[in-house]
Amino acid sequence: MSSHEHHAQSVERVTCAIVTVSDTRTPATDGSGALIRERLEAAGHRVVGCEIIPDDPARVRTCVAAHCDDPSVQVVLLTGGTGIAPRDTTYEAVDALLEKRLDGFGELFRMLSYQEIGPAAILSRATAGIRGSTVIFSLPGSPAAVRLAMDKLILPEVGHVVSLLRA
Question: What is the pLDDT of residue 1?
């Protein structure tokens, strides 16, 4: 089956949960979470949950697992905590939950990011994968990084990825 034929079978509207991982952001200052929501809704997708939690691995794992266990949630998008600072533990928390990894997401994100910010792209630990029948995308906390990931990688493929998990 060709790529075009695969995309013809893509789900047009997916149901998503957004999790901002931050020790400092509030609903008023969470520009990255708001940007994810804006991009998803503009593309016709549905957001059923949006929350801000501290960068604590146990809290992140519990939160993401709960969304994955909710049959109405098809995609979980996280923003924040993917760097290398001591408090950046989102990568480890998410990685522990993944049953299948989508290594190409992080690789492509860093390649595209390199084109925008140069060698600092190596500091990103953006990742994606599958837990059960839920897709998880973990993005950096910067609005520019979120915009790049959403516009160039996630929105063009998310319906296709969800359709493959339903097959």
Answer: 52
Cβ-contact 72, 13 below 8 angstroms: no
Q: What is the CATH number of domain 14-166?
A: 3.40.980.10
Residues forming a β-bridge with 134: 131
The token pair at 99 is 């049953």
Contact 94, 55 (CB under 8 A): no
Threshold 0.90, pTM exceeds: yes
pLDDT for res 166: 84
Quote the CA–CA distance of 146 and 68 in Å, as a whole number. Answer: 21
Q: Which residues of the chain have pLDDT under 70?
A: 1-9
Contact between 88 and 57 (Cβ < 8 Å)? no
Amino acid at site 131? R
Q: Which residues contact 44 (CB under 8 A, 6 or more apart)?
A: 12, 13
Q: For residue 58, which amino acid is it?
A: A
Whether 109 and 149 have beta carbons less than 8 Å apart is answered as yes
